[in-house]
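idk why but the lab printer keeps eating my pages so im just putting this in chat instead. protein + nicotinamide-adenine-dinucleotide:
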Amino acid sequence: MKGKTALITGGSSGIGKATCIAFGREGANVIVVSRTESSGKATEAELRDLGVEAKWLQADVSNPEDIKKVMEEAKSLYGTIDYAFNNAASSAKSGMLTEIKEEEWESAISGILTSTFLCMKYELIIMEEQGFGAIVNNASVDGLRGFPMDPVYSAAKHGVIGLTKSTALQYAKKGIRINAICPSWTFTPRIERLLQRSPGKDKEWLEHQPIGRLGKPEEIAEAVLWLCSDKASFVLGTALSIDGGYTAM
Ligand SMILES: NC(=O)c1ccc[n+]([C@@H]2O[C@H](COP(=O)([O-])OP(=O)(O)OC[C@H]3O[C@@H](n4cnc5c(N)ncnc54)[C@H](O)[C@@H]3O)[C@@H](O)[C@H]2O)c1
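predcted complex ->
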């Protein structure tokens, strides 16, 4: 991937950060997109220490102006966006549907689904001009299955998969491959925060993980790398489960 450019949203933490490191190790220039300057700049510095050509760009992925600006900046910095991993997403309120406030629904759809649409829209404008590119959207096993207490998150992630499949068909003959990944519980700062709020919740999750452990961010990153690489040249419109066997049950 030497000389290629990879753009990763939510690149300063968890799965996004592991993916920045994975692309960097393959020789790609890495654009880390995130909201917070301190963690964004720290990730950029960490990548540069590993010898990676890296640049942090600030954006809230649910803000169209931010996304448009970031994509233009990325293109002017490195000339192309070869790979994009649309990974950043907000969480969503859990609970019975009747308890979900309208503004909680709107906020989750904006932070999970609209943000993916926005990133794809401005990435695809650039990739179509180039005539090549690979996009991976981070969905979840929640995009494949129903979860009784998470109708909002699950609906938004099902939407990410629908967006992935339909746009993959639109761009199939244009040299652009679009796929999604569907991780199950993976040990990241997001999951650490969840465990602090609900200690012992991991025991419940492990009952649904045939492999008997949570995923590692690096294991998810490897799949993103493969889907973007030429080794996956015949793969498009897929929603790849990376879940320790969860969806096989
Ligand atoms: N960790 C899991 O178990 C798991 C499982 C399935 C899917 N996912 C998905 O993986 C992705 C990353 O999750 P993670 O566990 O690595 O989380 P994380 O909290 O460790 O990292 C998420 C990153 O995204 C950034 N982010 C969030 N909203 C943003 C916004 N509006 N604009 C810009 N940046 C924003 C955060 O600041 C953070 O840097 C999410 O889409 C999540 O839904 C995670």
